[in-house]
Amino acid sequence: MAANLLMLVLLIGGIVLAYNIKKEVFPYFDMDMVRITVPYPGASPQEVEQGILLAIEEAVVGLEGADEVRSTAREGFGTVTVDMIEGENLQKLAQDIRNEMDRIVSFPEDIEEPTIAIISRKRYVVSLALYGDQSEWVLREYAEYIRDRLLQEQDITQVEVISARNHEIDVEIPANTLRSYSLTLDDVAQRIRRASVELPGGAIRTQSGDILVRMKERRDFGPEFAQIPIITASDGSQILLDDIAIIKDGFEETTVSSSYNGKPAVMLDVYRVGDQTPISVSDAARQVVKEVNVSLPQGLRVDLRNDRSNVYRQRLGLLMKNGLIGLALVFILLALFLEPRLAFWVSLGIPVSFLGSLFLLNISYVSINMISMFAFIVTLGIVVDDAIIVGENIYYHQQRGKTWPKAAVTGAREIAMPITFAILTNMVAFVPMFFVPGFMGKIFKQIPMVVISVFAISLIESFFILPAHIGRKRTDAPSGLFGWIFHAQQSFGRAFLKFVNQRYGPFLKATIQWRYLTMATGIAIILVTIGYIKSGRMGFELFPKIESDYAKVTAVLPFGAAFEKARQVEKKTDTGSPGGNFKKWR
Fold first, then answer.
1. CA separation, residue 576 to residues 259, 263, 385, 554 (Å)
2. How far apart are CA 49 and CA 52, in angstroms?
3. Torsion, CA 225, CA 228, CA 231, CA 233, rounded to 10
């Protein structure tokens, strides 16, 4: 009864946890990095390095908790990335960097406000491409509409519009006009700033309640700015901004453009947040795309691209497929060589161990992701070994004349010590992965957590659940179809035992008798293998090269090349393939 109760707890509890445990494509962890970004408009990479990066490096390289400092200079801005020593306080390091940045007085006057941020990794799931032969205004407007529609879904919380230029209002005033009115650009900017505000003004208490006072002069479009008074004469006459300036509603000037399938495009990235799963986020996005494509005007379309949930689905499918194949092979082979009932209980050790391990993984805050599923696949071929050995040893004692209950107790007790140390050896083999330092260590530590959890539950199942079930074996022989299967299996078992005694036994005896020849043969095979590896015929690489689902073309133009030349290169590299493409040009 206790064994059945324990098995049900592991199975049912594991199934419940399988639905509730966090699911993500890649395990989330802190990057332990602080990034400093300093815009320097119009500066060359050499000027950025000399005027900004060297000063920042000198200021932060000696900070407590700073491990490695890397910097990159580009046209118009520079970045410095500070890696934290493992175990230090990341918030304290970021604050120390801010303090050091405030003390630097040698920065050029033309730089913009530096940004200091702790690097965090968003949990990207899928991208949407809105494209068509429409103006940038139309694309941006419908991109915002699709973003709002996505956020209405219960399974989607975070969406970002990328590759789209920000809105910008240009105010152009000729120099002659400024001189004629004795104005400067700064004077005009100050008047515009003061006239476009939205500020709370407190509250007025009355007998009927409080009245909130608020100045609502916020302006969002060019025509609204056109009515701002720039000069007010003593007689009350005014000169408006529209009288002296050319006002344009447009977008910020950048040297970045994007296209999809050869047409102008705007991209939307959808992320997973909290307990959302990659599959649920992807399915919700697909449903929105299907609905939106029906309502979009002619010439516009939305496509899904880079759906990372597909990789998650494939890995999950591979795990389930391998698990079912392993379960079937174990059952068939044990049923063939031992007996079907014993094979069933031994095979049940695979789902019990996997589902039971979720109890330990949930406590360890390990999610179901690409790395942990890989670890489950690794353990798939090992986890049932101890159950097979225990079951076979119980069967051995039963065949020697003992009753099933006594054979279960004797067989499990006899094999307990070697099985325990065998499982512990497997666990210890994965323990060093806990101590891999840096970025890779945070990824690899998921593997030993999964492996050790599965092995621990497998050990419990082999010594407490499996013997209890096998020990309740019925004494009467089965009848009907099961009786025929039983007798056929017993006939095969006797034939196999005869082969072992008459063929394999004498061969084994000969190898022991000629032990020096056997040992020499083994050594010769090892030497040949080592020689083949050392000869260079067997290649070695850390990560194998595999075919990608995407082809990427990168064109590098000389520094300062015109944007139109970049567009010409884009047209030459655009094959017009229906598979879709996405480009950025700087």
1. 11, 10, 54, 16
2. 6
3. 150
Nearest to 229 by CA among 219, 242, 216, 217: 242
Taking Cα atoms as reference points, which of 417, 411, 418, 414 lies closest to residue 470? 411
**In this predicted model, what pLDDT tens digit does every residue of 58-74 receive, in sequence order?**
988 888 888 889 999 98
Average pLDDT over residues 460-477: 78
Query: What token pair was written down for 462?
Result: 């082999």
Does residue 586 register a pLDDT over 70? no
Q: Which of 392-406, 493-507, 555-569 has the lowest mean pLDDT?
A: 555-569
258-282 per-position pLDDT tens digit? 888 888 888 899 998 888 889 999 9
Own/partner long-range contacts of 373-378 (Cβ < 8 Å, ≥24 apart): 373/315, 373/316, 373/318, 373/319, 374/315, 374/447, 375/446, 375/447, 375/448, 375/449, 375/450, 375/451, 376/319, 376/450, 376/454, 377/318, 377/319, 377/322, 378/447, 378/451
The one-letter amino acid at 435: F
Q: Is 202 left (phi over 0), alpha (psi -120 to 50) or beta?
A: left
Q: Go through 233-246 and write b for each residue having 16 or more CB atoms within 10 A of its CB, e for each that does not.
A: eeeeeeeebeebbe
Structural tokens at position 96: 């120390």
Task: Name beta bridge partners: 248.
Answer: 170
Determine the 3-state secondary structure of 434 from DSSP.
helix
**165 dihedral zone (left: phi>0; alpha: psi -120 to 50; beta):** beta
476 has pLDDT over 60: no
Looking at residue 482, its pLDDT comes to 61
- Residue 90, class by beta-carbon neighbours within 10 Å (0-12 exposed, 13-18 middle, 19+ buried)? middle
Q: For residue 319, is pLDDT > 50? A: yes
Q: How far is CA 464 from CA 5, 39, 390, 425, 511, in A?
A: 11, 65, 11, 20, 38
Confidence of residue 585 (pLDDT cuts 50, 70, 90): very low
DSSP 239-296: EEHHHH-EEEEEE---S---EETTEEEEEEEEE--TT--HHHHHHHHHHHHHHHHHHS
Whole-angstrom Cα distance, residue 444 to residue 302?
37
Q: Higher model confidence: residue 209 or residue 9?
A: 9
Residue-level length of the chain? 586
Cα dist from 572 to 342, 406, 569, 585, whole Å: 68, 80, 5, 14
State the Cα–Cα distance between residues 150 and 217, nearest whole angstrom: 31
SS (H, E, C) 482-502: HHHHHHHHHHHHHHHHHHHHH
Q: How far apart are CA 458 and CA 447, in angstroms?
A: 17
For residue 551, count other CB atoms closer than 10 A to its CB. 9
What's the 3-state SS for 331-400? HHHHHHHCCHHHHHHHHCHHHHHHHHHHHHHHHCCCCECHHHHHHHHHHHCCCCHHHHHHHHHHHHHHHC
